[in-house]
């Protein structure tokens, strides 16, 4: 049931989800004559957001460093406070030493990004607009 | 809000597990029902679950207070997949964060899910519903939901700690002592969560409003049901 915003030849379910196997602009089939941009608008927007966030983190880190602030997590601050009140030791379920924590976060976020991107494409990927209709 | 193992007594964490289960059971029912009604629900559930996993582990520095904290993502999840379903995905997220990232604990999943998945999700969802009922624009309702849900999460987390550990100190005083550990850092992050929630929901609505039945219009669900029957 194509809506006004979708082309009539895109394969849609009653709720508007693309059926598995239906074609999208970023699907595996690419028109031989079509041009693929290095940076499409989505990539540009995401890179811009990422750089703004990274610059903010860098700036905040430099500021905290110059003012001798520890930059620790509030979870840790409050867990330490609670331990002091209760006279007990707190501990995470697993304690990752050194760079292992960075590794675990990177692996988790890499695959999380892939999964989000995969489902985002299923839900919000633009349907192929210039698919040729077979001549009758 | 990631309370670690060893802080809460077995009675306390057991009780929070019990309370959380009361929300997880209807959450599983909500997921089962909405999967039947809406074909887009499964990918939305997967996407929001993973997004909550990343967002609630994303520590951002706040230079004013000299410490780092993270947003929650559960207000956005509650708007998209429902408040009770958010309790379910939040419990799964907290489990994986505990066993793989050393974030939080296993005995405290009940308490942490109550603060982040249940109170954070439901308070955000209610803010969204009230403001949308007052015909507020989507970005404003979503932004307020993100802000309220974020702060409510940390208020609840400090309440959980205070309730268990206040001893002879008045509960309210101990609650505020714990909250002051979170609050100053969390306030700017709640504003960031408001902006993020508003932006993501507005983008989703702009691209495919038809995929968000129940979020935007009540009648959409009825239309969908009748479409599904016809198919």
How would you portray this structure in words?
With 136 residues, chain A is mainly α. Chain A contains three helices and no strands. The relative contact order of chain A is 0.15. Chain B has a single domain, classed as Orthogonal Bundle (Arp2/3 complex 21 kDa subunit ARPC3). Chain B has helices at 10-37, 41-55, 74-81, 83-101, 109-133, 138-165, 171-207, 219-230; strands at 60-62, 67-69. In chain B, strand 1 (60-62) and strand 2 (67-69) form a beta hairpin. In chain B, helix 2 (41-55) packs antiparallel against helix 3 and helix 5 runs antiparallel to helix 6. In chain B, 57% of the residues are buried. Chain A: The chain crosses the membrane at residues 42-60. Chain A: Residues 1-13, 21-30 have a biased composition (Polar residues). Chain A: Keywords: Membrane, Transmembrane, Transmembrane helix. Chain A: Residues 1-30 are annotated as: Disordered.
| Major beta sheet, strand line-up of chain B | 1-2
Structural class of chain A, by secondary structure, is mainly alpha
The CATH architecture of chain B is Orthogonal Bundle
Give me the count of strands of chain B.
2
Number of domain units of chain B: 1
Biased composition (Polar residues) (chain A): 1-13, 21-30
Keywords (chain A): Membrane, Transmembrane, Transmembrane helix
Region (Disordered) (chain A): 1-30
Transmembrane segments (chain A): 42-60
Record keyword descriptors for this entry.
heterodimer, A: 136 residues, 3 helices, elongated, B: 231 residues, mainly alpha, two-stranded antiparallel sheet, 2 strands, 3% strand, globular, cobalt transport (chain B), cobalt (chain B), cobalt ion transmembrane transporter activity (chain B), membrane (chain B)
Summarize, please.
Chain B: Belongs to the CbiM family. Chain A has helices spanning 41-66, 74-86, 100-124. Chain A is mostly helical and 136 residues long.
Give the arrangement of secondary structure elements.
The complex is a heterodimer of chains A (136) and B (231).
Chain A: H1 41-66, H2 74-86, H3 100-124
Chain B: H1 10-37, H2 41-55, E1 60-62, E2 67-69, H3 74-81, H4 83-101, H5 109-133, H6 138-165, H7 171-207, H8 219-230
Antiparallel strand pairs in B: 1-2
């Amino acid at each position: 049931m194509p809506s006004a915003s979708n082309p009539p030849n895109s394969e849609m379910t009653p709720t508007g989800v693309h059926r598995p196997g239906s074609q999208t602009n970023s699907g595996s089939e690419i028109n031989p004559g079509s041009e693929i941009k290095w940076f499409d608008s989505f990539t540009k927007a995401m890179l811009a957001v990422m750089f703004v966030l990274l610059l903010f983190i860098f700036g905040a880190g430099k500021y905290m460093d110059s003012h001798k602030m520890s930059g620790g997590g509030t979870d840790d601050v409050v867990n330490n406070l609670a331990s002091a009140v209760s006279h007990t030791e707190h501990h995470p379920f697993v304690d990752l030493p050194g760079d292992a924590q960075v590794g675990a976060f990177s692996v988790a976020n890499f695959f999380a990004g892939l999964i989000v991107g995969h489902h985002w494409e299923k839900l919000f990927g633009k349907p192929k607009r210039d698919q040729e209709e077979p001549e009758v | 809000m990631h309370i670690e193992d060893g802080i809460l007594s077995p009675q306390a964490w057991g009780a929070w597990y019990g309370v959380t289960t009361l929300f997880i059971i209807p959450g599983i029912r909500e997921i089962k029902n909405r999967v039947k009604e809406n074909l887009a629900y499964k990918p939305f559930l997967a996407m929001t679950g993973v997004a909550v996993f990343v967002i609630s582990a994303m520590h951002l520095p706040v230079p004013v207070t000299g410490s780092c904290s993270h947003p929650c993502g559960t207000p956005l999840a509650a708007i998209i997949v429902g408040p009770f379903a958010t309790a379910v995905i939040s419990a799964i997220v907290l489990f994986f964060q505990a066993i793989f990232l050393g974030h939080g604990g296993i005995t405290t999943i009940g308490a942490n899910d109550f603060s982040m998945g249940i109170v954070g999700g439901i308070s955000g969802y209610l803010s969204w519903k009230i403001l949308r009922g007052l015909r507020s624009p989507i970005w404003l309702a979503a932004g307020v939901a993100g802000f309220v849900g974020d702060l409510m999460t940390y208020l609840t987390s400090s309440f959980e700690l205070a309730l268990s550990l206040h001893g002879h100190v008045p509960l309210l005083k101990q609650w505020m002592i714990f909250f002051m550990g979170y609050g100053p850092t969390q306030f700017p992050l709640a504003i960031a969560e408001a902006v993020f929630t508003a932006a993501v929901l507005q983008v989703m609505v702009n691209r495919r409003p038809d995929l968000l039945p129940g979020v935007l219009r009540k009648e959409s669900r009825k239309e969908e049901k009748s479409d599904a029957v016809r198919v």
